[in-house]
Amino acid sequence: MSKRNTISPLKANPLRNPGQSVQDEIDKNREAFEHDAFMLISIAVIAGLSLYTWLMQTPPYMMFVVSSAGLVGYAIYALPKLRRRVRRHQVLKQHRDGKRAVAEYLDRLRDHGFRVLHDVVGDGIYLDHVLVGPQGVYVIETETVEKPAQGDASILYDGVAIDIAGQTFGGDVVAQVTAKAAWLESFLQESTDISISVQPVMVFPGWEVAQPEGSASLWVIEPKTLEKMLPEQPSVLKKGQIGLLSNALKQRIRSA
């Protein structure tokens, strides 16, 4: 989908994180440092070229020729990278905001007895969100995908592949989320001696999502649906088990 023909699926900015004001200041300070460092290096280069001109007693126009050649060469090298970095920044920001928005939805599940944990570091993997509650353990993968500005804005999941506005994503995407659930099952078993099946879930904020009727190994849904779906699931964990499992995950997060 072309950038001009897409819009963000998020209707509102997520709430601020704890300490975000400090993080904003850290970011501003880093940007100011990078700017000053760049200017210092630039001035040093110009001074070095001027010194070279003076020592070599070259005509004044040589300074312009050398500087211009350096500028053009660097521009050819740097401008494409800068464009990619700008786009990368936009993509990362949208992913970050999507995860924060989903976290706000998940926080509502605390009223249903769920413990909500975010950004769990596994063995070479990251789990966006983990829910532990009476109805079991769920690993939540957030996919913040741009929506078409016009036309079809729906996601279809047939139990094998995911179709996003006509673009099909194969089983590798599904396999990644399933692998995260398998890792979490193993980790919880080793950490607590509690054997519990982990339900993998992919959420697409802001999209209309349809998946097969009945039981599915992977849930592909809009995050607001969780608040309705989870309380309808059978209870499989007691309060003490919920505490053990969530504490194991907290220790994992802190140690990572």
- Main β-sheet, in a few words? 5 strands, mixed
Let me know the number of strands. Answer: 11
Helix and strand run: EHHEEEEEEEHEEEHH
| Category by helix and strand content | alpha/beta
Evaluate the radius of gyration: 25 Å
In helices, the fraction of residues equals: 40-55%
Number of helical elements? 5
- Average per-residue pLDDT, rounded, comes to 82
> Strand portion, in percent?
15-25%
Would you mind describing this structure in some detail?
The protein has 5 helices and 11 strands. It has helices at 20-56, 60-107, 171-192, 226-229, 239-255; strands spanning 6-7, 115-121, 126-133, 136-142, 147-148, 154-157, 162-164, 167-169, 198-203, 208-210, 219-221. It has a 5-stranded mixed sheet with strand order 2-3-4-9-11. A 4-stranded mixed sheet has the order 8-7-6-10. A two-stranded antiparallel sheet has the order 1-5.
SSE layout:
Layout: E1 6-7, H1 20-56, H2 60-107, E2 115-121, E3 126-133, E4 136-142, E5 147-148, E6 154-157, E7 162-164, E8 167-169, H3 171-192, E9 198-203, E10 208-210, E11 219-221, H4 226-229, H5 239-255
Parallel strand pairs: 4-9, 6-10, 9-11
Antiparallel strand pairs: 1-5, 2-3, 3-4, 6-7, 7-8
Helix pairs in contact: 1-2
